[in-house]
Structures are given as C-alpha cells and as structure tokens.
Predict the structure.
Amino acid sequence: MQIGSLPGTAASLPAALLHSRQIRLTGSGAGSVPEVRMIAEVPEITARFGDGTFDAPYAVYRLSRVGEAWAHQGRTRAVGPD
C-alpha cells in the first residue's frame, strides 16, 4: 500500500485487517532523511540530471504480472508500463 499525504496526513485501517494479516509497514519520503541532508544533495543530483549520469534503476511489469510486481524486491523500483 502506498500512502501519500495529498489526501491528508492520516490513514485509517479497519482493526479486522490488522488482526487477520501479517503486516509490515515501512516508510520513506521526505521525513526519512533530514532536510539538511536532502538540501546538501541537490547540487550533485541537479548536475547528474544535466550531464545525463543520473540513474534510477527500475523493473517494468505489465498488469498481468501484478503478483510478481508486488513480490519484487531489491534496489530497483517496480513500475507499470506507460
């Protein structure tokens, strides 16, 4: 499940869901890295975009392979086709 903050800063889950499943929550995003560290990285990232050396590895999955996409692990990001 991906929860963004655009619709609000809180997410509500039914208690039955939490009781009936083994659930692992992980977080990432702006709150996972100190702001001063993010700001310090901006010049390098911007330069890498400019010279074409920025690399964001990904793995593409068609909708028919959604189970594989959900099970995807590793440092690449699972995405769907355009």
